[in-house]
Amino acid sequence: TGAAVARDAPTATVGVREATHEPSPRARGEVRLMALLVWTMVGLAVWHFTIFLPDRFWAGIVGACLGAIAGAILFGLLLNGFSVPGRDDTNLLTALIAMPGAVLGIAATWFVGDRQLRGHAAT
Description:
mainly alpha
């Protein structure tokens, strides 16, 4: 019957999005900070391993935390062409690329702190 055909027919809303050509979030210029959050969390996670290192960081353990987060973010930005991927562009690789940056950031604060401690010890 006609009622059964109408009930089984696809709804008209399926084609509405295609017909209106609604712009994607990227095209609308929405703020996309998901990868920045991922990079920050990776920096924090890697920073937790500094408990096993001697406390010679510039500004102590807080400096190590800031170095890990800054390193993860800067490295992530560097590998993404200084843009921040959004939610739809974020995957496991987004987190993995931040790890070397976090380690480099921690290493930088450790070497600066170690140099400062050696300078104070010599005087």
